[in-house]
Amino acid sequence: MMTVRLGIIGIGQQGGAYAGFISEGKVKNMVIGAICDIDPEKKAMCAEKYPDVPFFDNYIDMLESGKVDAVVTTVPHYLHPEMGIEALKRDIHALVEKPAGVYTKQVKELNEFAATKPDVTFGIFFNQRTNPLYQKLKELIDNDEIGKIRRTNWIITTWWRPQGYYDSSAWRATWAGEGGGVLVNQAPHQIDLLQWICGVPKKVYSNVKYGYQRDIAVEDEVTTLLDYGNGATGVFITATHDVLGTDRLEILGDKGKIVVDDSKKITIKRLNTPESEMSATMSMQDVMKIFMGGDVSDVYSEEVLEFESVWGAQHIAVLENFAANIVDGTPLIAPGSDGIHGVALANAIHLSSWLGKEVELPIDEELYLAELNKKIEEEKSLVNQ
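Above: the chain's sequence. Below: its structure in token form.
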């Protein structure tokens, strides 16, 4: 059995967590092959904590060292596609962090290059896809448990960040440094899950607030209307200024409804008769009997599923699945090529707010990039004043 030597590019909070899991033997078929970071202080820390692990301050040197079979890119978002391509170019397996990039044009370049290397593993760190709750939710939807989707509503505002968080580094919450705010930093997992489970919307219309409750240039409040193109609609709400926070996903189908609370509990209500059939056959007297204190078991059954979350388990599962794909071809839970869908949706939400109108997916990539570059230039001019 092969052991995958993983190169960790960027040994900050996430890279440090992965290094800890691997060094503690929690990731099957994987060891730390090398660590790379441009911060001299990180070199000193790694020399003490991981004395037997080679350290590099240039990731290209690490890729060409012969010390790694694969890499994970725990670096600023703009760098994910570039580093992914450089690794794949050298037949080194690449696990890119989320989001896959800042804009779809650069992610498409990564995907297209990866397609020329079918024998090299290319994954993305969508750890929520390993969450048993969301795997079960996808199974329920795929198995038509509540029928055809009519509406989705997700309010995910459990991302409270104080001003001090944004002030902690100059690149944070900037267009040039991160390429956005809550949409590209905190909420990419939910954006991925939404399209993975419910499908990619055809159109979006968004109301986005930039620097609404924080002294930042990027978005800290988002409300988006989704149009799935088949009559189904949705609402996606996220923010970083709600200290009380809400995490609630509702999916309404023509045969029932699923509600997910706090990413811990799934409530499934299955209609005994499809709603359209109920509408066609029930009189108002029948309705009154049921909904004025009658027996609702005649209308629907209810099932509640509870899930426990173990910190780190999802990340370990992604690393193990990535290693297993390299070792024996186990299918990837999150193929790298899937990363473009969430980026496309986030780009569409931004673009709709910038243009003040509904936009269709796929969006005009050149237009998005031009508008993003305008934001970056405006930011630079303000800094230089």
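The two ends are 59 Å apart (CA to CA).
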